């Protein structure tokens, strides 16, 4: 507590200096919010969402936050980021303007709107910094409560580092597991399922997590009575309160305007969580929101006069001022001087940010104006071009878009004139340079990307037979992985004690312990979150989702958080999580879906690998552990008991990522598929050869990335025909596959027949063997589809079947 520190470790002057510094940070943050809103309303910024009203509790949180700790928060934590030295005034406004220079706007280089914060975990070459020597913030996302699942993993990493020995470079990521993961959320967002799922999981796991709920009684315009039972999140979570000999949470409540009590509360929470690995929930209530939810509206529309008056009186900064005056820390005049100094600092920082943002664009504007004037001199459309020049010149705050629009419109006017070539080259160069500011780092651009891994074939004994269950190959390869990489761990429903539902992890928990091979509850979103958080802290987690259909519970976390992480930090953070699941053919609606089109379109930024057997799958795991990129591996659900050869080099053979494999060469038609369906394709091809049709069969192996060597078009150049067989719905993954082959690889140049697809029906697969047969492509379907395509080519040789 502050009073204790004052008496025992600080002189009053030291204490006064500390408080005044805190106040100065709070008032600078408030002035940023006030001026930031004006910048939006004047059009310099597009949108603003600010942390005003939450300043004082964030100061208290920052005091307890140590090097090595991690934050997983939401978009009102600007005061906290300033207090830990990770956000300057100029950087705040650079984020508001969307500055695309990572040096000017280190949070996301303009890829996210202001208020989304991150620190840099990586060096320029993609290798890890020493995270124990800095205060860390995982990159924010906007989806409400979306920060919660990752928070669980950030906290669990401390538990792993404390209790698992032998992890390589552990000292770069943890000081014996003493780090806390700090979460923040608005009170209304605690209504989201992700909040409750995370709270429950943290209570079960007993991880060092401190969850702050900023409670200002509203969610945008909707009052807490419509959001939360009893209008009080800490009240309804009392059942989670940790008691003697139970797991659970410590639950603390504190008023958001009480500086002294806030500091004491956060110190108490940190002591509990850091030493004992007990999660803590701090309900910070009686907070205000002086400017309303965001710059898109006014809170006067939905708050009555009494509430607005109360908010003015109990504004946390006002209350801090009154307290400072009451105990003689500062006089009203001294406080006013600090306020004036803060306003000046913020105004200067704003001006510097705007100049840094605008000046490079003005230089580009001048460069183009000069070029267009030159082009106009010899053009028959001189007057029109000079009009573009005049409009561009008169724009005192140009956007890159406006510069490029003027250039491209001018290009149309000089298509057959002398100035075309120079203007065309300028546009191409400018677009290429500028596009990188918005499109780089979707995947790794370091030497640790998936393409850096060289293929290593499985090695077999001379007399090896296909007599080994596929699940045993996975099991023995995981055994090799866990021995080779002490930082790896796997967790999922039924993954631990029974060795997963298909026995691919048989005996692994007994050998490597319950922390490295762990059972978890039925909670897919936070299984993903555990993986993301631990991967952010240098571990190599494998998060298991029991069935592919269940991935839908976690698809939002994969799409909004994991898939965008490297992109939205411009390569400054990474989470090389491997997601393991199994899918395709089995029995019934909920265990045999193949929603691949939805998946691949939702998770760009994550590799999607679709091995046809367990040796391929094991090779993918081996490859991925040499990379720094996230991936989803979908094992064939009906392949665990199918027989394969037993390799000798477990943990070493590597399946190349993004490379297709030709399983059978042929001359008449190219058949493309992946996963379990390939076995049906292979059987159909055997039957087709009996009627004189020679099929080439290609296994895609991975959907993201897709055929990086363009081997598919080489096959089509030989056969001149294409059929894509897919057990997703019509227009699902098959549409993506066709787009890649026809448009990206230009295979239309070689086609003598219409490219076609054979997919599942539009409905979910019905139950049972007959349900499977009538819902998804069968051997007979494939045979007749191919035969029909050949009938169109040569009806005499291949007379119609029907």
From TrEMBL:
Residues 468-642 form the Transketolase-like pyrimidine-binding domain. Gene3D superfamilies: 3.40.50.920, 3.40.50.970. Pfam families: E1_dh, Transket_pyr, Transketolase_C. InterPro entries: DH_E1, THDP-binding, Transketo_C/PFOR_II, Transketolase-like_Pyr-bd, Transketolase_C. E1 component of the 2-oxoglutarate dehydrogenase (OGDH) complex which catalyzes the decarboxylation of 2-oxoglutarate, the first step in the conversion of 2-oxoglutarate to succinyl-CoA and CO(2). Its EC number is 1.2.4.4. This is 3-methyl-2-oxobutanoate dehydrogenase (2-methylpropanoyl-transferring). Its cofactor is thiamine diphosphate. Keywords: Oxidoreductase, Thiamine pyrophosphate.
